[in-house]
Write the structure tokens for this entry.
Amino acid sequence: MQNLRLNPGESENLHWQSFKTGNPASFEYLYQQYSAGLYNYGDKFSGDKDLIKECIQELFVQIWTKRSSIGNPEHIKNYLYKSFRNLILKKTAQLQKNQGFDDLENYGFNVSLNIEEALIDGERRKKISGHLQEAISKLTARQKEAIFLRFYEQLSYEEIAEVMGITVKASYKIMARSLSFLRDNLSKEDLLILYMAFHMKLLN
Amino acid sequence: MKKQLTDYQSYTLEDLINDESFMVWVTQPNDELDTHWSSILEAYPGLAPIIQEGREIIQSMRFETEVLDAKEQKELWNTIAAKTTLLDKPIKQIRLWSRYAAAAILVGVLFASGLFYSGFRQVTIQTPYGQLQNVTLPDGSLVTLNANSNIRYDKKWGENQIREVWIEGEAFLKVNHLHKEGQVKNNQRFIVHTGVLDVEVLGTSFNVNDRRGRTAVALLEGKVSLGLNTTREKPIIMAPGDIVEYTGGKLNKKPVDVVEYASWKDGKLYFRDVPVSRIFDYFEDIYGYKVKVDDPEILKRRLSGTMSSKNEKVFFETIARTLNISITPDHDSHELIIKSN
């Protein structure tokens, strides 16, 4: 068996190069790598599953069509997320136009937190999860999106800025505001229970 | 980490959350970061409360994931493929006379290549460590090849040819059912060869694992007959939910939850009271590390649970936390250093 070992970034770049020359297998590899993540990201903008799938479809058809002129983005993931985000915002804005909105900046971003069920008993879990959810829901769409990209997708501030089309400074600012807001809106007790719960792992 | 130790003196909670290395330390800690942050804490014990708070905030940010299930993902891909790669073969209108010319040339080429063809008749696919691959066989049957595995088969299957594949490592197969009624013809048969076993199927989905001198076949649906390729003994007939293991010269049949057993193909692993030593074998087979354990007692412990194996780092981290051990990959020596905490 072979001992060759590529780190994920390298093999992804190889696939990207090969995709640009028109290799269907590499194109499919990119789809397999990113479709689930994009779908999850898209879901936060719109509850309309068909719309999200349509945007994923459009994104991939687009990059295939212009593959030879597409260049080599520094981060493939950021490039795809950014293009996908633009598509979704455009589509939702178009749909909303009929209802009187037409501001591209005016978008929704809805996340739910997932507190592991097995770890905290029912009543308590409901209470804490309620508090957290409430605090988060008071954030603006931009703040929620930045938090999601940072904590869920683990992007850096530079990457968040790239995906959301804002300056790096602005991405720091958005995050700082949202965090201080969360801190003010959660009680010490909530935080402590959460902390313990995450450390009481199932088997040890 | 270009920061001076004194930079941390006046750190606020926001600074911490904004600090790349802090985030990584909380979500995917390693020895280096542990040392780094304990030395900071030692120098500035006053930071303890905000470090604690920062950890809490980061760790409570777990978002619900909206899942694109495998079927939807496949369907969406089919639509995309139909609009892109499948369409991409240029369709040209050829005038009648040139079509004949093209046909004549084609015949010529086929004839000439027939002589060389035999050298290219077989396809071999080898997956690297840490990567799965989906393979479509000439009859449209589907194979998911686990990492560090290989499959070999004829490029084309003739009309009267038995469908045969050779597998090393681990694979999940979904075989197209061609036999409808009457006598089973050759081309309706499908045989998987492993080191010691021949698995014959009609149309079914099953998992084959041939590693470390142990061969195991798990059947999800359909019917499979399984025999040693060295002896003429009567083959074992398997029913869905059965797993047959071949170790030490003997075949054993037992029931398992085969859906769990084949879950690796969806990037998920189920462990049900599995000895830790087996999980470490898996690290070696799939990711290509040599596992070094400082305390053999760890190997005797057992683990249950579901985890995602899609991301190697996260996978190691989940196991490390659950067992309260540290797992540190050394990329130069390809060793996985495992220490009890």
About this structure: Chain B touches chain A through 52 residues (CB under 8 Å). Chain B has ten helices and 18 strands. The two ends of chain B are 25 Å apart (CA to CA). Residues 96-117 of chain B form the longest helix (22 residues).
